[in-house]
Amino acid sequence: MENKPHPLDMENMPLRLRHVYILIIASAGQCFGGMLAILVGVIAPLIAITRHPALPSWLQGVICTSGLVGIMLGSLFFGRLSDKYGYLFFFRLCPLIVTGASLWIYFCPTIPLLVVCLLLIGLAIGGSYALDPSYLSEIMPAKWRRTMLGLSKAMSGVGNIVMIFIAYIVLKHSDNPAIWHKLFLVLALLALLTFLSRFWFVESPAWLLAHGKTAEAERNLQHFLGQDVRFGELPSKKESTDSSASRQNFFTRQNLKRVILSGVPWGCEGMGVYGIGIFTPVLLLTLGLIQRGENPFERVVESLRFTFYINLFVMFGFILGLSVVRRFNLIKTQYWGFILSAFGLAVTWVGYIWHAPAGVLLTGFLLFELALNAGPHLSTFELPSRIYTLQERAEGEGIASALGKLGAIIATFVIPLLLDWGGGSLVLLIAIAVLLIGGIITRLLGFQIVKE
User: Fold this and answer.
1) CA–CA separation, 195 vs 365, rounded Å?
2) What is the pTM of this model?
C-alpha cells in the first residue's frame, strides 16, 4: 500500500522555489517604481536643456510630480477595487498599463503627453504597491514572510541601480539630451515581460477564502505551492464577506490609528526616498560634493555616475535591513531607523555649516541612506500587511501607500523652493524635522497596535 505524503501547512512549510518565483514576479511593481523615480530625475534636466528657456520651473515641477500623483491615486483606486473584485485582474492590468504608456512616450515625446503618460504609469505602479504585498503576505510561510516582503521592497533599489546604469551608458555615448524619451523603452520591455509572466498567476487564495470560496481557494493554493499543501487552520479564521459593511466600518477609531501609523510615517519616509532621492544630484552639488562644470549636459551625466555609487550604498542598507535588522521588533526597527537617518542628515548639516571636509558631509549622508533603507523604507512597506485584516488588507495598504506618495509629492514640490529660500541648509533642517516626526508617530502608536 502506497504511503501518501503528509500534507503541509502553508504557514509552517519550508521555503520552495515556487515561493522565490512568486516573489520575483510579484515584486516587479517595486522595481518599476524605482526606475520611474530615476527616470523623472534624469529627464527633467534633459528636457530643460533641450527646451530652455521655454520650459518654466512650474512645468518642471508638474513633470517631476505627475508620476507620484499617479502612484498615490493608483494605490487608493486599485486597492479598493481589488478588495471587492479580487486581485488577479488588476495584478495583470498594472504592467500592461506601464507598457502602453511607456511606448506612447517613446513614439510621441511631447510635454503634455509626457505628463499624461507619467500619470498613467504612476497609477499602475500605485496599483502594484497595493497588490504586490497582498499576494506575498498571503502566500509566504510565516517564518519567511517578513524577509520576502523586505526583498520585494528592495527591488525598488534594484530598479534605481538598473535605470541609473542604463541612463548613464546611453547618455555617455550619445551626447544628445534630446533622446530622453528613448529611456522609456527599457521600462516598456520589462513591463511587457512582467505582464506575460503573470498569466501563470491565479486569484489570491486568501482573498477567495475571505469571501467564502473555500474550494477554489484550496485549488489555487495548490497551484501556487504544490498538491501537498493545505491551508491548515486558516479556514476557521474566515472573515465576514459583507464588503459594504467593511467599507462603512473601515475608518473606525481603531482603524484610524492604523491609518495614521501605516500612512503618516510612510509619508515622512517619502521625504527622504523620493524628495531627497530625486534631487540628490542637485543637493550634492549645492553642498559642494559634486564639482560644477560648464556644460549642463555633462553635469547631468556626472551626477548620474555619483548617484549610482550612492544607490549602491542604498542597496547595502537594504541588505543590512534584511539580514540583521529584520530580526528585531518591527516598530523598534522603524523608530530607530527614523532617528538615525535624522542624525545622519544632522551630521551633514553641521559639517556644511562649519565648512567641514567633504568626507564628513558624505559620511552623514551615507548614514542617512543606510538607516533609512535598513529601517523605514522596508518597515513602512511591511507594516500595513501586519496590522490590517484579510478583508481590509489591500485597501489599507493602498491608503498607506497613497499617504506615503502624498509625502513624496509635497517634498518634490517643496525642495526646489527650499533650495531657493535657504539653500541646502534649509533642505536638511526640514528633512531632519520630517524624519523625527515619523519616528515620534511610530513610537507613540506602534507599540499600541503591533504586538510581536
Assistant:
1) 37
2) 0.79
